[in-house]
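tmp note - Tripartite tricarboxylate transporter substrate binding protein
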Amino acid sequence: MHRRALLRASLAAGVLSPLAAPALRAQGSADARFDHSLRIVVPNAPGGTSDILARLLAPELTKALGQSVVVENRTGAAGNIGADVVAKSAPDGHTLLLMDVSTLAINPSLFPRMPFDVQKDLAPVSMIIYAPYLAAVKNALPPKNAAELAAYLKGRAGGLNMANAGVGSLTHLTSVEIGAALGGDVTHVPYRGGAPAVLAVASGEADMIINGATATQPYVVNGQMRGIAVSGPKRLAALPNVPTFREVGWPMADAGTWQGVMVQGNTPPALIRRLEVALREAVAQPAMTARLAELGGEPRTDGPEAFRTWLAASTTEFGGVVTKHGIKPE
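out:
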């Protein structure tokens, strides 16, 4: 009995010993290792906001994690195809989903059947940026501001075509709400992502777009289309003469593109933490912050729990808009 008591005391001392802490930390570090290349799955076409951001982050993550990071575009089904790739990937943190996560908040209300459960099969890592939406029209369209646009729309038979990033995207929901507020006849034309929708307006194929400023602002700055209004709390530094939605009395005043990174839902917390730190450090670099500002984006790296809270609240809010307008998938 005396020997057993000594053994129990020795084990207890080992558990409580300060020497145990470094061992646990070493084990945690081992759990957070990346031992082969990573991929960032973007469920949109090349050239859109998510794609631009992924290609900015990939080299920074390569340096931070010691493994090559590649970008893979997997389009279709309002982002569900690319998201499903990540939801069904190995839970080892090597497959990342980078997208406008407002889509993930909308799709459960839009699709009667989802190929994955957003809450269970995907785990938030970090929000990356918020970028406002920029409303713009093709140069051949006469209106130069919101008031002229409303008057033009009401007095024009046939209305206008408004391009969006796909049925059920937040650009679509925002366009529907603003189109209804403007009055007149608005035909909503879905494209396979924001990039082709922007190009449709720049080429004159579509009349108008409401899309992430990250991808749209360069076309307005370069004179390929005309800016009308921008969402969010302030005007864009690169377009100081373009008023905010709130200034012109439009709804959805704080809509925008919320770009975030998620991984497979069962990924170990240690790996999620390491990815979060790497992403936050990458976004905080002065060169990256300046580049995002040029594209109209603001860093938003508040961590997994804040991301999870935002997703839950947005799912309720955006689901209400889907129901109100009876929006259905294609």
